[in-house]
Design goal:
The complex is a heterodimer. Chain A is of the alpha+beta class. Chain A has three domains: about 5-55 and about 295-435, no CATH class; about 60-115 and about 255-285, Alpha-Beta Plaits (2-Layer Sandwich), CATH 3.30.70; about 120-245, no CATH class. Chain A is built from eleven helices and 14 strands. In chain A, strands 5, 6, 7, 8, 9, 10, 11 and 12 form an eight-stranded mixed sheet that branches. In chain A, strands 4-13-1-14 form a four-stranded antiparallel sheet. Chain A starts with a helix and ends with a helix. Chain B is α/β, with parallel strands linked by helices. Chain B is built from ten helices and ten strands. In chain B, helix 3 crosses helix 4 (about 130-140), helix 3 packs parallel to helix 5 (about 160-170) and helix 4 packs across helix 5. Classes of the chains: A alpha+beta, B alpha/beta.
């Protein structure tokens, strides 16, 4: 009996008791579907993030905060719950002063260190249709970062001109097209800070005119913010504080600083610089590390889901054992006959193992089919709802090698489960088997 | 042939010497001896009936001769080869190529086609698809069921089923066919037809036929009757005394002995 015959026999034996085989296949399918789909989501998210990180650039770009604490997903938590307050300890987050910036600049390998001013505007107003819109405003930290543009270019931090790169959809709202808005002036309404209780006092708004240099595409780096260059950010900050007497103005310090190092620096060289910064009390993170922190949560979730899938597969493999034991019982006489006719025990073993592998194979094939349907439906729903603002993000994507390895893994698990009944079948004595009633 | 005695001119296909088969542990009180010092020589082309009541050891003898069971003591030679020396691989090979089996309970895959049931020994032997088909159709033709090849086995009558089983036993061109109560589940008319096919194969193709039965009528149609009682051979009559009663077979009966030596050549 050659291998093809064994596989063919195993497969046709599978269809002898269709309902029983089907139920076993469904059990395997539950596990395979979960794992395949879960890996599809993992792959989809990862490949999107990878593309975004790759597109985001950020070579030699580090974001710096001043803290004695180790950076983590939740920085406020100590090893055993929230950190108890200690009046002598330094706060979790410390402001980065001008002196700190000098310290940063003194670290070997640092080419540039600047504080990032936090500014805001009440509205953006069009000179075309006079409409006003709320907006989130952010100083563009570094020209090392790439943001995908629909038109024009990103703001330039080295220019003295007041520049803004609009978030997607803003050009149209302001009465322009993505092209015609380039070079136009828009007005930002800046609310001045006041001393004392200002809750009942009328808002004091001053205007500042900025030139639109580009319109951004949707991206993870942009996150829907309107970017201004440092010149603009500093001008807005000066304007915001203009009503406050000199003596009452807050210190000229920052929550965040950005540090630029050699663009060609390797990961190891960057790690050395990060260590030097840590010694001085700063924590610096690359773009990839920031994304990695978010991804570690995501990876934990998918790992848990995979564990569920694995549990389902474990239950399914017990189902395989059960199904095949019943099959061995039913086919005792047939096994006896075939052994009497000279079929070796090892081939009998192979026959039942193949049957188990076939169950695993069909279970994962059904899993793939169902996951493919879920992929189309799921992506459709996702793209119309929570991923609508992130074009190019396919939630569920399958990679052929990983899907194939899941199929082989499931077939292997099925094989292992099948060895028990297959061994019993192989050990049948032909005489006893033929006498068996 | 390794073994040749003065008594027989034709080569022996089965030569059993002092076979003893005991069940249960040695020196145990429950030890049961199914065969006691049984010696039996069967020449190629013979038709032999092994007769005995249930518990006489006839099934054990058949299983041992058919290489399905190993004797506790004694030696068994098959076509001159000592069976004790064959490994499980050799045993499987010999059973697959040299032996055919017909059982009272048929043992067929009822949901499969007649053709697939017949090809089973060839599938086990690993023959090519075309050889399987050709030989299976020849075997079905030999039992007169070639038009049923595509039918499901379960749709056949009892007699047809047993004929399919004979075709299956035949399909590997065996030198010996073992038939265990081949007509036990059939009415007399269909039983007679199955008997006729078996004896025709023995006579025309020189296939050694060993029938295990408690039915004196079918035993009488064999050239030789071996009676077993309590695990021992009580009588071994070479000449059929009752063959005269079955009028149809009388002419046929005398022919086979002369043809036996030519059997291998005919294949």
């Amino acid at each position: 009996m050659n291998l093809l015959d064994i596989i063919r026999t195993a497969n046709s034996n599978l269809f002898r008791n269709k309902l029983r085989s089907l139920l076993t296949i469904i059990a395997i399918f539950v596990g395979s579907f979960t794992i395949i789909l879960n890996n599809g989501i993992n792959y989809g998210v990862n490949s999107y993030v990878d593309t975004q990180v790759a597109n985001a650039g950020g070579q030699g770009y580090l974001e710096v905060i001043k803290t004695d604490h180790e950076l983590g997903v939740n920085i406020q938590m100590g090893p055993s719950g929230p950190t108890e307050f200690d009046p002598d300890a330094t706060p979790i987050f410390q402001r980065i002063t001008q002196d700190d910036l000098e310290t940063l600049r003194g670290v070997e390998g640092v080419q540039r260190a600047i504080g990032l001013p936090m500014v805001s505007a009440r509205y953006i107003q069009s000179y075309e249709n006079n409409k006003r819109f709320e907006l989130s405003l952010q100083a563009f930290p570094s020209d090392r970062l790439n943001v995908d543009m629909i038109s024009g270019r990103m703001v330039n931090n080295n220019r003295n001109a007041l520049e803004i790169a609009l978030a997607p959809d803003f050009a149209e709202a302001l009465g322009y097209t993505d092209e015609s808005v380039l070079g136009r002036q828009v007005r930002l309404g800046i609310r001045l800070q006041q001393l004392g209780d200002t809750t009942s006092a009328p808002e004091i708004i001053r205007h500042i005119d900025v030139t639109v240099v580009g319109v951004q595409n949707r991206s993870v780096v942009g996150m829907g913010a309107n970017f201004i260059n440092l010149t603009t950010a500093n001008a807005i900050q000066d304007l915001m504080l203009s009503e406050i007497p000199e003596a009452f103005r807050p210190a000229d310090d920052f929550m965040f600083a950005i540090v630029e190092v050699d663009e060609d620096a390797t990961d190891e060289e960057i790690a050395v610089i990060q260590e030097l910064l840590r010694e001085k009390g700063f924590q610096a993170m690359t773009i990839a590390e920031q994304v990695g922190m978010v991804m570690s949560i995501f990876d934990a979730i998918t790992t848990i889901l995979n564990v569920f899938g694995a549990i389902a597969l474990l239950a399914a493999s017990i189902g395989i054992v059960n199904t095949l034991f019943m099959a061995v019982q039913e086919r005792t006489k047939e096994i006896g006959l075939m052994k009497a006719m000279g079929l070796s025990s090892s081939k009998i073993f192979l026959m039942f193992s193949s049957e188990a592998i076939m169950l695993g194979f069909w279970g994962s094939v059904v899993g793939i089919i169902a996951a493919s349907i879920a992929r189309v439906v799921g992506n459709n729903i996702a793209n119309n709802t929570f991923l609508a603002d992130l074009p190019g993000f396919t939630l569920i994507e399958f990679s052929v090698p990983s899907t194939l390895s899941i199929v082989f893994l499931i077939m292997f698990i099925a094989f292992v489960a099948g060895t028990l009944p297959a061994r019993r079948a192989a050990r049948q004595n032909p005489i006893d088997a033929l006498r068996y009633e | 042939m390794a073994k040749s005695t003065k008594k027989t001119e034709t080569p022996l296909v089965i030569d059993a010497r002092n076979l003893t088969k005991t069940y249960g542990k040695k020196r145990s009180e429950h030890k049961f001896t199914a065969l006691k010092n049984v010696s039996l020589e069967i020449a190629q082309g013979e038709s032999v009936a092994i007769i005995g009541k249930s518990g006489s050891g006839k099934s054990t003898l058949m299983h041992t001769l058919a290489l399905l069971d190993k004797p506790t003591k004694g030696e068994l030679y098959f076509a001159g080869q000592r069976i004790g020396k064959l490994g499980s691989r050799g045993l499987n090979r010999t059973r697959n190529r040299e032996l055919g089996f017909v059982f009272q309970q048929f043992f067929m895959n009822a949901n499969d086609t007649v053709l697939n049931n017949v090809t089973l020994p060839l599938v086990i032997a690993g023959r090519s698809f075309f050889t399987r088909r050709r030989r299976a159709m020849e075997a079905l033709r030999a039992v007169g069921l070639e038009d049923k090849a595509k039918n499901k086995a379960k749709d056949l009558s009892g007699g047809q089923k047993q004929r399919v089983c004979i075709a299956r036993a035949l399909v590997n061109n065996p030198s010996v066919i073992f038939a265990d109560e081949p007509t036990g589940n059939l009415d007399s008319a269909t039983g007679a037809m199955v008997e006729k096919i078996l004896f025709d194969l023995n006579r025309k193709q020189g296939i050694t036929l060993i029938i295990v039965t408690h039915d004196e009528d079918i035993a009488a149609k064999c050239q030789r009757q071996v009676y077993l009682k309590d695990g021992e051979i009580v009588s071994d009559t070479k000449k059929s005394t009752k063959s005269a009663k079955t009028t149809k077979k009388t002419t046929a009966k005398k022919a086979p002995k002369k043809k036996t030596t030519a059997k291998k050549g005919k294949k």
